[in-house]
Amino acid sequence: MKSTIKATNITLTPAITDYLDKKLSKLKRFLNPEDTSVIANVEIGMTKKGQNTGDIFKAEINLHKAGKSFRAVSETGDLYSAIDEMQEKIIEEVSQYNEKKTHLIRRGGQRIKEMIKGIKFFKR
Question: What is the reported pTM?
Answer without folding.
Answer: 0.78
